[in-house]
Amino acid sequence: MSAELLNRARSGDRDAFAELVQPYRTELHLLCYRMLGSFQDAEDTLQETLLSAWMGLEGFEGRSSVRTWLHRIATNRCLNALRSTSRRPVTTGPEATSVAGWVPETSLHGEVPWLQPFPDLLLDGLPDTEPGPEARYEAREAVSLAFLTALQLLPPNQRAVLLLRDVLGYRAAETADLLGLTESAVTSALKRARTTLDAARTPGPPAPAPGSTQEQELADRFVAAFLSHDVNALIALMTDDVWVRMPPLTFEYRGRDDARRFFSAVHPHRSLITRLLPTRANNQPAWAEYTRDPLTGVFHCVGLVVVGYAGDRINELTHFEIGIATLLGMPRTMVA
Questions:
Q1: Are 166 and 249 members of one domain?
Q2: pLDDT tens, 131-141?
Q3: CATH classification at residue 290
Q4: Could you say which residues of the chain have pLDDT below 50?
Q5: Residue 284: CA count within 13 A, CB half-sphere
Q6: Euclidean distance between CA atoms 231 and 265, whole angstroms
Q7: Structural domain of residue 193, as residue ranges?
Q8: Which family does it belong to (predicted)?
Q9: What pTM was computed for the model?
């Protein structure tokens, strides 16, 4: 950041302000997303953050970096948003039955119905700067859907403390200053947050590197099994503790037995899906799902599926609604 650019922004130059905050936009967006779990809510909060920064620029005294100052604003905006809403895990009621009448058991970890994916195209805009010295999680893990889900189960303050300390790598004193807390309060909140997150994480072999030959081979096997509509072939690709879910619906399944019952139950509907269009979200492989209109031959998008791997098996399969697929830039219709 140059003093000249900051002075121009303070004098009311909007172009200078845009240039000042541009290097941090994606990082701020991702911070809001991690706090809120919703891509759309994160976009709204990012805009509020930038507006607040623009209006409060005269009060920025330069005692911290612009990046830290923006992190402070974004985190507090997210905390305000979380305190003004009531987001609690949703339990499956008697109305949540499958097409075959089977009533699924909900996960003991709880549902996060507002969960949405984050497009990998936006992750390419992250700055090259390494996380701070206190960071505990690698960037790839800290954007996975499993990590995002576990985060949503934390109280807002614990969520903020863990992100600032273990993901962005701020020191305890810096985090306390950012949140207006004491260091002891930060240390206590971090300890509780780590305990909750560690309990929610499922140990297992690491996923293949994004874009690697191993990941592509797994993706090819998944697509072949999915489009063949062979339940046994699909289940054979999964870990024993596979997690299948469909936010914002209240369906959630843990383990291969429940996954098999679910895919068998929805077979009549799933067999209509005849094309998968690849994309990526949360540093994970994803596909938009399409059915073909028998009269026009046009393919219509019916959803998005994001897959997580553990070693050479699928350990997580998350299905999202049509609107999420289009949010990631996938076409609503395609001509054969």
A1: no
A2: 666 677 777 78
A3: 3.10.450.50
A4: 88-103, 107-109
A5: 27
A6: 10
A7: 3-86+117-200
A8: Belongs to the sigma-70 factor family. ECF subfamily.
A9: 0.89
Query: Does some domain include residue 73?
Result: yes
CA angle, residues 140, 143, 148, in degrees to nearest 5:
140
- What is the gyration radius of the CA atoms in the chain, in angstroms? 22
Amino acid at 108: L
Cα–Cα distance between 204 and 280 in angstroms, integer?
22
CB atoms within 10 A of CB 182: 11
> What is the helix (H) or strand (E) element at residue 316, kind and residue range?
strand 313-320
Could you give the CA distance from residue 222 to residue 130 in angstroms, rounded to a whole number?
Answer: 34
Residues shown for the chain: 336
**For residue 203, what pLDDT is reported?**
76
Our count of domains for the chain comes to: 2
Q: Do 259 and 244 form a contact (C-beta atoms < 8 A)?
A: yes
Question: At CB < 8 A and 24+ separation, what contacts does 197-206 make?
Answer: 197/150, 197/151, 197/154, 197/162, 200/109, 200/149, 200/150, 200/153, 201/146, 201/147, 201/150, 202/146, 202/241, 202/243, 202/310, 202/315, 204/239, 204/310, 204/311, 204/315, 205/310, 205/311, 206/310, 206/311
Distance of alpha carbon 156 from alpha carbon 138, whole angstroms: 22
Q: How many CB atoms lie within 10 A of CB 198?
A: 10
Are 244 and 237 in contact by the 8 Å Cβ rule? The answer is no
